[in-house]
UniProtKB/TrEMBL annotation:
The protein's name in its UniProt record: Nitrile hydratase
Native source organism of the sequence: Enterovirga rhinocerotis
Record flagged with keyword Metal-binding: yes
Domain Nitrile hydratase alpha/Thiocyanate hydrolase gamma intervals: 13-194
Alphabetical keyword list: Metal-binding
Record flagged with keyword Magnesium: no
MF terms (GO), sorted A to Z: catalytic activity; transition metal ion binding
Family matches, as InterPro entries: CN_Hdrase_a/SCN_Hdrase_g_sf (IPR036648), CN_Hdrtase_a/SCN_Hdrlase_g (IPR004232)
């Protein structure tokens, strides 16, 4: 009888090691792939990419229009790429009358090559299920109180489409450089669960 290790109570590192061993045994995991991919993701798939896009949109009206029409093209214009399995990026513009927020009800997908890997709370079942049903309540619990006269739109990630929010620019930051603006744009703001604060990072 084959001896199978019970991983039901195993920690993350132990489960990861077990999966790597299976993939390697089947020839599906080239030597060094995990380390190489982790290093690449740590330097390439970061929140700073989306922050730079937002900052440029705030300072360049032509780029802003292109970004809202074709988020994928706008990202590639700045040298950012996407995995083969999600080639479409849609950018959602927040205004004084419309607030957008994103979720993945099936799992925890994000445009991670643009806004970074999903934070822990984004992956939790409570956020994924309640945001759709109790949007304003959930956002208020997270510290963002949306006024009743502002339309709240919840966008659920699909198999091939990823979203990012173009947040409102704090009025007091008009005239800042794109570099300074990028420094205040957070992942939470590009998910839509927090405003952009004007304090310089």
């Amino acid at each position: 009888m084959t001896n199978h290790t019970d991983l039901s109570a195993a920690g993350l590192e132990q489960r990861t090691a077990a999966l790597e061993a299976v993939f390697q045994r089947k020839g599906n995991l080239p030597d060094g792939f995990v380390d190489d991919f982790s290093a690449m993701a740590g330097t390439t798939f970061v929140t700073a990419n989306g922050a730079r896009m937002v900052a440029r949109a705030w300072t360049d009206p032509d780029y802003r229009a292109r970004m809202l029409q074709d988020g994928t093209g706008a990202a590639r214009e700045m040298g950012f790429e996407f995995p083969a399995w999600h080639q479409k990026l849609t950018v959602l513009e927040n205004t004084d009358k419309v607030h957008n927020v994103i979720v993945c009800t099936l799992c925890s997908c994000t445009a991670y090559s643009i806004i970074g890997g999903a934070p822990g709370w984004y992956k939790e079942f409570e956020y994924r299920s309640r945001l759709v049903r109790e949007s304003r309540t959930v956002l208020k619990e997270m510290g963002l109180d949306i006024a009743d006269d502002v339309e709240l739109r919840v966008w659920d990630t699909t198999a091939d489409t990823r979203y990012m929010v173009l947040p409102l620019q704090p009025p007091e930051t008009v005239g800042w450089s794109a570099e300074d603006l990028a420094g205040i744009v957070t992942q939470d703001a590009m998910i839509g669960v927090a405003p952009v604060a004007s304090a310089r990072s």
